[in-house]
Specification:
Elements lengths: L3 H40 L6 H18 L10 H12 L3
Helix pairs in contact: 1-2
Protein name: 2TM domain-containing protein
InterPro entries: 2TM_dom
Pfam families: 2TM (PF13239)
């Protein structure tokens, strides 16, 4: 069986990788949306940049919520509780 310290380390490492991925995602979002905004400014008067910024922004928001553990819909430890519940209720 896995040591408690090893388990905590593994979970912490996964969380740090998720946060790091979010920061990378946010940086790419800022760069790409900035380039698209410039293209929108120099090419047309229609403000089409709003559509990709909002669409991608919603995805970025979801990624941030996951990375920082804010899940108002299912709760912080919902998945672990559900696994334990299913394991306790199912007969094998």
């Amino acid at each position: 069986m896995e040591n408690v310290t090893d388990y905590k380390y593994k979970k912490a490492k996964e969380r740090v990788e998720c946060i790091k991925g979010f920061y990378t995602h946010a940086m790419v979002y800022a760069i790409v949306i900035s380039v698209l905004a410039y293209l929108n400014y120099v090419t047309t008067g229609f403000l089409w940049i709003v559509f990709p910024a909002l669409g991608w922004g919603i995805g970025l928001l979801g990624h941030g919520m996951q990375a920082f553990g804010y899940m108002p819909f299912l709760g912080k430890d919902w998945e672990e509780r559900k696994i334990r519940e299913i394991m306790n209720n199912d007969e094998y």
